[in-house]
Design a protein that fits this description.
The complex is a heterodimer.
Chain A lengths: L1 H16 L5 H8 L4 H9 L16 H21 L5 H25 L4 H4 L21 H9 L19 H26 L1 H26 L6 H5 L11 H8 L3 H9 L2 H7 L11 H15 L8 H26 L18
Helix pairs in contact in A: 2-3, 4-15, 5-8, 8-9, 9-14, 14-15
Chain B lengths: L1 E7 L2 E7 L4 H53 L17 E7 L5 E7 L39 E3 L34 H54 L1
Parallel strand pairs in B: 3-5
Antiparallel strand pairs in B: 1-2, 3-4
Helix pairs in contact in B: 1-2
């Protein structure tokens, strides 16, 4: 019965998934000395002529943009053929990009950047009609009532409305509050769908919630964000809720954050000291690795929506990998080039 | 040493041309020693300069690389020229002082973060170097304004350069450039800023050292010339005798 409505698209996404770069592909890319070489290698993959069609100078930023365009094209193909509730599910995926775009437009306006300059740099997956007007709003309340009230983001504004002027701090707070509401909403949506979708998606979203709580906490040290303000940004749909979040809210330094993580086996590993000799990985790197693991699991089950979410997220990681390799190539930092995360080993398809 | 035996009538007078009188020996020894000292100093300064330059290059590379890491975590378009304004207030000033020896000394001074009420009281004018830009520089800039705006203080030289008044900006806040990218930025971006801060200080040191090296080289030249002149004067003297 799933297949009646969604079978074609599931088949489609699994086909796309087969084109995800393998270990061997990354190995070839890492051997390149220039971006041109990388372009040649990418032509042999599913990316084909994506990079070749461009007239502009090949820069890392351009590579990133082209990879993004590719993903957007694939997503649009899926979305345009989707029926409810898959269509709603796919829309949920786009909301995170919308939130990012809104914040980029606000901070761009703070820097007196022209809207015409900012719009092309926004993520296409998060495009909406009222984007051009976002930069005009002075406060979150104004943003809501004047610009976003008719967009899907309106539903996430319950806790985010405020009369404070939108400066860098307020923009950051807004971003995280919107994201918190979005994640919690997405989580209950998946829960309501039930079945395999719930089994696959809820752990992924819970992990996302916990990751945000950890990262927000760690990055807030040394900034003007108070503990109370910080606690208000933690999404509540993760495993850390409620005790872990309470403890994180009170944490004053990295050691205390690690204490909190040690209480949860899954997170203890992430915060563990690396073995001497292994390459240094940032906290974000380790979270990305864990995210990739969770997302690859989605393809082991059938007849659920998780494959769509996971495909998008894995393709994003792939973009990050390729861009990372490109940066190492252009900056001649070959020693760190292998910091990418291999997604599929290449034996399974 | 020259020996001359003069046979003068019945007397044999032996003149031994002694080495130049003690006074002249010390002088030429003295100038040789001085020359050696200067040469050693020149070498030391050069070595130090090379070390600092290598350090500078490595810090700059590190900074750019940390920025790439930040882009990896935050998203490629979130660490880019879109995040900063084309007009900015410098946080670091470079002071150029001319010392008594004639050498230039460069030092950096960092502004304390001011709140908006206090700004405006600072009357030091800032000299704009380079073309005034209307447009946007596409190249991604390091954290702080690398086009150093120099303030000359207490120079012994008469000629103070023309100082153009600072262009008025709407944003009176001198802001930590890290905030351009958000409040909750990852560690890698903070590392990048640290690297570039060190680059600024090192640049001033290198500039000072460079002028010192050039001046030492000049001194060396003069000393060599002087010694050469001395030596040929002494030779002429001895030939004349």
């Amino acid at each position: 019965l799933f297949n009646v409505d969604h079978g074609y698209l599931e088949g489609l996404v699994r086909g796309m998934k087969a084109g995800i770069l393998t270990r061997a592909d990354y190995h070839n890319l890492a051997q390149c000395d220039t971006l041109e070489d990388m372009k040649l290698h990418l032509q042999c993959t599913d990316y084909g002529k994506t990079l070749s069609s461009s007239e502009d100078d090949l820069t890392v930023s351009l590579v990133d943009s082209k990879l993004r365009e590719n993903l957007v094209a694939e997503f649009s193909c899926l979305r345009s053929n989707a029926l409810p509730p898959l269509s709603t599910f796919l829309d949920y995926i786009t909301y995170s990009y919308m939130i990012d775009n809104v914040v980029m437009l606000i901070t761009g306006a703070l820097k007196q950047r022209d809207v015409a300059e900012l719009l092309p740099r926004c993520h296409p997956l998060g495009a909406f009609d009222q984007m051009a007007a976002v930069g005009i709003a002075r406060t979150p309340t104004e943003l809501y009532s004047a610009v976003l009230v008719d967009t899907p983001l309106a539903q996430f504004f319950q806790d985010a409305v405020s009369e404070s002027n939108l400066d860098e701090m307020e923009a950051e707070i807004l971003r995280n509050k919107l994201f918190k509401a979005y994640l919690e909403s997405f989580h209950s949506f998946c829960k309501n769908i039930g079945g395999a979708t719930k089994d696959i998606m809820c752990p992924i979203l819970e992990f996302e919630a916990d990751r945000r709580a950890f990262i927000i906490t760690v990055n807030s040290f040394g900034t003007d964000l108070s503990n109370a303000e910080r606690s208000a940004l933690y999404p509540a749909c993760g495993r850390l809720h409620p005790e872990g979040l309470c403890l994180l809210g009170a944490a004053q330094d990295a050691a205390q954050v690690k204490d909190v993580a040690d209480r949860y086996p899954a997170y203890k590993i992430i915060f563990e000291e690396p073995e001497p000799g292994s390459g240094f990985k940032t906290l974000e790197d380790r979270f990305f690795e864990q995210e990739v693991k969770l997302n690859t699991l989605a393809f082991l089950q059938q007849f659920h929506f998780g494959v769509f979410y996971s495909y998008i997220k894995l393709k994003e990681q792939e973009s990050r990998n390729i861009v990372w390799i490109a940066e190492c190539v252009t900056q001649r930092q070959k020693s760190k080039i292998h910091n990418y995360i291999t997604i599929f080993q290449g034996t399974e398809q | 040493m020259d020996f001359a035996i003069h046979n003068s009538q019945s007397r044999t007078i032996v003149y031994a041309k002694m080495p130049p009188p003690l006074f002249t020996t010390r002088e030429s020894e003295g100038s040789s020693t001085l020359l050696d000292e200067k040469l050693l100093r020149f070498m030391e300064q050069l070595e130090l300069l090379e070390e600092k330059r290598a350090s500078l290059n490595s810090l700059i590379e590190q900074g750019w690389f940390s920025m790439s890491k930040a882009r990896y975590s935050m998203g490629n378009k979130h660490v880019s020229p879109l995040q900063y304004a084309s007009e900015m207030e410098p946080l670091v000033l470079v002071h150029a002082k001319t010392l008594d020896s004639g050498e230039l000394d460069f030092s950096t001074e960092r502004f304390e973060q001011k709140c908006c009420k206090e700004v405006g009281a600072d009357n030091r004018s800032i000299e704009e170097i380079g073309p005034q830009e209307k447009g946007v520089r596409r190249r991604i800039k390091p954290k702080e304004d690398i086009t150093k705006k120099a303030v000359n203080e207490e120079t012994s030289s008469e000629n103070a350069p023309e100082v153009t008044p600072v262009t008025k900006s709407d944003q009176n806040l001198q802001q930590d450039p890290l905030k351009w990218f958000g409040i909750l930025v990852p560690q890698s971006l903070k590392h990048a800023q640290l690297s570039f801060k060190q680059v600024l200080e090192l640049s001033a040191e290198i500039a000072t050292l460079q002028t010192a090296v050039l001046s030492t080289r000049q001194e060396l030249k003069h000393s060599k010339k002087h010694k050469h002149e001395e030596a040929s004067a002494t030779q002429l003297d001895s030939v004349a005798d």
